[in-house]
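Example S7 (structure tokens).
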């Protein structure tokens, strides 16, 4: 079936009952992706509570009724956005931890923690919108977003597992290495919100986690091994 398309600001039909008011102007292969992009922008720049589904639809160029074809509520949109901030980092961390059992030397163990922090931090820094700021919403802690909370808790636990495998020193004896790295990465959200994020921010956070774990003298080889782990994962 050929979908009618009309230019000069006329309506473009994108499917049965889902007319578009204008040509797509947002990144995304589908209307759903465009809705998520618009919502991420509005939630992070205007606030979640003050953003309506109507304003999201208008930002995309579709009718509000068309938005409901993809998402029934504003919370449904927020749920997908929050999940997207964790899913990639969690998948990578699971893979890194799965191959960590044979590691015994400081560089190998440190490289795994560094790689997880660098990969996770890069996702937070490179996303089109700084969706991580929504972690602080009271709504994000409700039962409605249990799945996101569960995944974030698992990711934090994997950081802790990797940190616990580092050689003991005065700091590691407290068992805080992995959690420290996790928290350092999440500070990138605030750094970005303040306009202070730079291209090297994710690497700096990962490096800081290693230095503060007491193994900074091995940073160069840890960095190299970390880069290889990430490259292998992406290959």
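Recovered sequence:
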């Amino acid at each position: 079936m050929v979908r009618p398309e009309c230019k000069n600001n006329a309506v473009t039909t994108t499917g049965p009952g889902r007319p578009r008011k204008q040509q797509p102007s947002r990144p995304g292969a589908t209307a759903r992706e465009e809705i998520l992009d618009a919502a991420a922008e509005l939630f992070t720049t205007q606030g979640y509570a003050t953003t309506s589904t109507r304003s999201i639809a208008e930002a995309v160029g579709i009718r509000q009724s068309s938005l409901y074809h993809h998402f029934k509520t504003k919370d449904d949109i927020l749920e997908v956005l929050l999940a997207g901030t964790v899913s990639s980092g969690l998948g990578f961390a699971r893979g890194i931890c799965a191959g960590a059992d044979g590691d015994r030397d400081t560089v190998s163990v440190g490289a795994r923690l560094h790689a997880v922090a660098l990969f996770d931090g890069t996702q937070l820094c490179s996303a089109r919108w700084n969706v991580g700021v929504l972690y602080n919403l009271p709504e994000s802690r409700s039962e409605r977003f249990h799945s996101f909370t569960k995944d974030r808790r698992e990711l934090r636990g994997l950081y802790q597992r990797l940190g616990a495998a580092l050689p003991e020193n005065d700091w590691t004896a407290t068992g805080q290495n992995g959690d420290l790295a996790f928290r350092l990465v999440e500070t990138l959200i605030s750094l970005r919100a303040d306009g202070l994020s730079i291209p090297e921010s994710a690497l700096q956070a990962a490096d800081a986690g290693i230095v503060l774990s007491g193994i900074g003298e091995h940073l160069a080889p840890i960095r190299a091994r970390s880069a290889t782990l990430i490259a292998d994962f992406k290959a």
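Notes on this example. The longest helix spans residues 74-98.
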